[in-house]
Amino acid sequence: MFNKSADLPVDQVKALRARGFDNNQIVQALQRNGYSSTQIFDALNQADLESGAPMQDSSMGMPPPPSGGETAQEYAQDYAATGGGAGVSNEEIEELVESVIDEKWEDLTKDINKIVEWKNDVEVKLTKLEERFEGLRREFDKLHQAIIGKIGEYDKNILAVGAEIKAMEKVFSKVLPVFTENVNELDRITKSLKGNP
Question: Which whole-number Å values give the CA distances from 195 to 97, 190, 192, in the listed order?
Answer without folding.
Answer: 139, 9, 5
